[in-house]
Specification:
Structural class: alpha+beta
CATH superfamily of the largest domain: P-loop containing nucleotide triphosphate hydrolases
CATH architecture of the largest domain: 3-Layer(aba) Sandwich
Distance between the termini: 40 Å
Shape: rod-shaped
CATH topology of the largest domain: Rossmann fold
Number of domains: 4
Largest sheet: 10 strands, mixed
Helix content: 40-55%
Radius of gyration: 44 Å
CATH class of the largest domain: Alpha Beta
Number of helices: 20
Length: 699
């Protein structure tokens, strides 16, 4: 049986004008093992086309090409890949070595695609390279070798899988005379080992040492003759050891994940500057995303902690609310214009809560006693510049000169305020009498802003000062005008209103002043004293599901700022997300360009049996590693930058508005990998679909 039979093979190329070019026309020829064949002819005669068909690189032809009696036309794509991997060895005129791989890796690449054990690969490669005189060049790169040495490496790569057929395209075309003879001697030795060697050549010198010459012209065989002077030499030691795996076929293996990672790392290192800049872009995006999330979380936590510091675990604050998902401005309006409770409304709310407790917590001993409620009132004033309902000022004497300042917020003292909320002084209470004049003097607490307004260096100096409070507003269409002398008894730590003048007054005292004007003060909130923190939580949870009610002013402020920070954080995250999308596009472009730059390399891999899946795997693994390294670097630098910012903020502000959660880093790492892999899908698919013949011609 002939090793290779070609029967009635035709090959046409489609031209741009829809016409056809007949490259091969009724080719009929057969070859046996041990032959050293030279296919000669002018350029365009069909030599390379015939070699591509024999090598399984091109399947678009008519006729039969039989290997060991089996027609290549019956092979599926995977079988053709295995055919090129096991049966065919290519030797190219331009060597087509992969520049960023060592000589050893270039030779073992075909075995890598078959997932051969590392020890077996090294032993086989070193044996062949030693016989070819390259035992001292294993770790060098192709650019460090001479032309003759490169061609020997290419021959070693072709022989590593012990193929039955060697196809050499102008194997001496770019070599000098002395090196040409050395390469031809190697080719003859391969043929003498019993392999079929087919060389495509223009050189008469090459043809003269062949056992057979086949000449093509215009796609037809015009000469097929044997060289009577050719003498085969059977050597005791073969250039290529017989492959034991061929004698005992095993389950076919393909490119492993480990080998894919190794190849990808080589590729990435070869383009390290480009990959570093690409990874840097992704890293910056990840750092910004993590920091944005940390700032949003940190500021929200800080605001929540402030609100919690102005509350009690055994007091429930119930205020009216107009805010909702459909009316997000309601929370702001609740602060500008708090809604007072109508007559009987508080009793209804209390009854509803008690009913809820009866139905759902019958074993709970606590029930609300309406007689033990405390009440509160608050309003944002015109001084706040936000359309508040009241006009409120505070007048005081500075070195004999009367001055005034607008009150930003008028607030009755909540029952959960303790000495902890004070920077100085004591909690205010009911009015006292001036021992000298017997005049009634109210007691108020103010925020630290009063010291600045009075020109005082220390806030403690404001304690005991007598000021005049003037408030004008309307209750139920009854105009109220309050003009009272008051003593400053305490300075309240109000971080949430740190730059504003806030006044705290006893509810009963304020109610009495309003009553003197012929009106009744309707509370804007009331306070429930519970028996435990768990009971407080139960009632608060109930209120959170009941539309129309909210917590204290501090909670309203915290809720408002939390919503603002949440929106701000989302906006920042979107910006960071956009930067990640830009990074994804950048990765896609770079990998797409990489496909173009490595087109010939892809053609070489396909010529030695790489499947589409193998090519995809290499490029996808590369994009995965880019994402992984970018993510790791981004996480590390985010932690470093975050730590420095925390130190900076603590030194400047006394607190750090950043909260880092572990899942931020996991999210960043995951996103980095995902966007990189997604960006690499199209370039990987494009690389896998490249035509091997066109790829090998690519410059």
């Amino acid at each position: 049986m002939k090793e290779l039979e070609i029967n009635h093979v035709y090959k046409d190329y489609k031209l741009g004008n829809k016409s056809k070019f007949n490259a091969l026309n009724d080719i009929n020829v057969a070859f046996e093992k041990g032959e050293l064949v030279s296919i000669v002819g002018e350029s365009g005669s069909g030599k390379s086309t015939l070699m591509n068909l024999i090598g399984g690189l091109d399947s678009d032809y008519s006729g039969e090409i039989k290997i060991g009696g089996i027609d290549l036309k019956t092979f599926k794509e995977k079988q053709l890949d295995d055919y090129r991997k096991k049966k065919i060895g290519f030797v190219f005129q331009s060597f087509n070595l992969i520049p960023h791989l060592s000589i050893l890796d270039n030779v073992t690449i075909a075995l890598t695609l078959s997932d051969v054990k590392e020890s077996v690969k090294l032993e086989k490669a070193k044996t062949i390279l030693k016989k070819l005189g390259l035992e001292n060049q294993l770790k060098k790169k192709p650019t460090q070798l001479s032309g003759g040495q490169k061609q020997r490496v290419a021959i070693a790569r072709a022989l590593i899988n012990d193929p039955d057929i060697i196809l050499a395209d102008e194997p001496t075309g770019s070599l000098d005379s002395a090196t040409t003879l050395q390469i031809l001697d190697i080719m003859k030795e391969i043929a003498d080992d019993g392999k079929l060697v087919i060389m495509v050549t223009h050189s008469e010198k090459v043809a003269s040492i062949s056992s057979r010459i086949v000449e093509l012209s215009d796609g037809k065989i015009i000469r097929d003759e044997k060289n009577e002077k050719y003498k085969a030499e059977i050597k005791e030691t073969k250039l290529v050891e017989e492959n034991a795996e061929k004698l005992e076929p095993k389950k076919e293996k393909h490119l492993s994940t480990y080998s894919s990672i190794r190849l990808s790392l080589h590729n990435m290192w070869a383009s390290r500057t480009k990959n570093f800049l690409m990874a840097l872009g992704v890293t910056i995006s990840l750092i910004s995303m993590i920091l944005m999330l940390a700032f949003g979380s940190g500021l929200t936590s800080y605001i929540d902690s402030l609100a919690q510091s102005y509350s009690s675990p055994t007091i429930v604050t119930v205020s009216k609310s107009t805010g909702s998902a459909e009316n997000p401005m309601g929370a702001i309006m609740d602060l500008i214009s708090p809604t007072p409770y109508a007559d009987g409304e508080i009793e209804t709310v209390v009854n509803d809560i008690n009913t809820y407790l009866d139905e759902n917590y019958s074993d709970l001993d606590f029930r609300i006693d309406p007689s033990q409620l405390d009440y509160g009132y608050s309003t944002l004033t015109a001084a706040a510049g936000m359309g508040g309902n009241a006009s409120a000022t505070i007048n005081f004497d500075v070195n004999g000169q009367e001055k005034s300042s607008g009150i930003f917020y008028l607030y009755t003292t909540p029952p959960y305020y303790t000495e902890e909320q004070l920077l100085a002084g004591s909690l205010s209470g009911s009015p006292t009498q001036d021992e000298t004049t017997g005049e009634s003097i109210g007691q108020i607490m103010l925020s630290p802003k009063i010291a600045e307004e009075m020109g005082l260096e220390n806030i403690e100096d404001a304690l005991g000062k007598i000021v005049t409070v003037k408030v004008s507003y309307s209750i139920n269409n009854i105009p109220i005008s309050i003009n009272e002398k008051c003593e400053i008894t305490g300075i309240v730590d109000v971080n949430m209103f740190a730059t504003s003048l806030v006044m705290y007054v006893d509810y009963d005292y304020l109610a009495s002043l309003v009553s003197e004007q012929g009106a009744t003060l309707s509370p804007t909130s009331f306070y429930i004293h519970t028996d435990s923190e768990s009971t407080t939580d139960i009632i608060n949870n109930y209120l959170s599901t009941t539309e129309g009610y909210t917590g204290s002013v501090e909670n309203q402020m915290a809720s408002m700022f939390s919503e603002m920070m949440s929106t701000f954080s989302i906006a920042l995250a979107i910006i960071a997300g956009i930067s990640l999308i830009v990074a994804m596009i950048m990765i896609l472009v770079v990998l797409y360009m990489s496909v173009s730059e490595r087109t010939r390399e892809i053609g070489v891999l396909k010529s030695i049996g790489a499947r589409k899946r193998d090519i995809k795997k290499i490029f996808t693994t590369e994009s995965f590693l880019i994402g992984l390294f970018s993510g790791i670097i981004g996480v590390i630098f985010s932690a470093i930058v975050g730590g420095l910012l925390i130190l900076l903020f603590n030194s400047l502000l006394g607190f750090a508005p950043l909260t880092f959660h572990w899942y931020y880093f996991v999210l960043a790492l995951g996103l980095s990998v995902v966007i990189s892999v997604l960006a690499g899908l199209y370039p990987a698919s494009k690389a896998a679909k490249l035509d091997p013949v066109e790829s090998l011609r690519h410059e």
